[in-house]
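Input.
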Amino acid sequence: MALARARRGDRRIDYWPGFVDALSTLLLAIMFLLSVFVLAQFLLSREISGKDEVLSRLNSQINELTQLLALEKGNTQDAQDQLANLQATLTAAESERSRLQQLLAQGAGAGAEAEARAGALSGELDTERQISQRALSQVELLNQQIAALRRQIAALEDALNVAETRDKESNTKIADLGRRLNVALAQRVQELNRYRSDFFGRLREILSDRENIRIVGDRFVFQSEVLFPVGSEVINDAGQAEMKKLADAIIELQKEIPPEINWVLRVDGHTDDRPLSGAGRYRDNWELSSGRATSVVKFLIANGVPANRLVAAGFGEFQPLDAAGTDEARNRNRRIELKLTER
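Output.
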């Protein structure tokens, strides 16, 4: 009997080695996933940094080309002014040449008449001939000046054509750089939208699916009843608990957004369209909505959110979600909205 019991005891299976192997495999898998995650974060940071460097170079090139374009336009204007002056000088020179040619023709006519007359007029004929000779000399000199002016005008026209060609090329480069800059800016907006989606996803998880806390478009909306008593800007105990969760989420998100993205969280206060009595602390809905937004911002700052990442704004009753005059519509319109945006 004792031998039989010993044999039955030897048949028991030892599960411990298999459990250790399974646990080791699980730990290795988790370490591998963590390594992949860290590597992906590193590559994403390098890609964003590279994009920012390209964006800075593009801005520098645009500034340089803009300066060159302004300089070329200034040179073009100077050339056009010089061309206008030369054309005016040419017109005056041609007028003077016409006058001298008329004078020469008159002198030649006078000389023929003097030869037909008596020899007593020979002195006058010599004078007319001298005048004609001087006129011819002046006409020749004017012709040379006009030719030189025409050469200068041709050179200026060539320079203007070159300047216009450069202007077209500069405008083309600027347009191309502008398109590239728009693409880079669009990528920055897409990055901020991605962080906004992550932020709203985290808020949805930590604040749960409460009916009076919801997402409307690109904003996270708290109904005023969640945070404030009626007509007051003081955050109640339940609201402080929700705002503490919000502050923790913002602090975690700040660690992931690259420092070159200049983001802010805008806190907007809204009321319904019922006017205040004016007997309380606030005279109208403008002051009440601004006071509530400011209270939220100050609470977040007190719980570790940097002040330079927060903006408070009051809209009174003038941005309703529901324009109906019902109590249900007024309840929806009394709210605090959060929007993650770029400064």
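Helices lie at 2-10, 16-116, 122-207, 224-227, 237-256, 285-302, 327-333.
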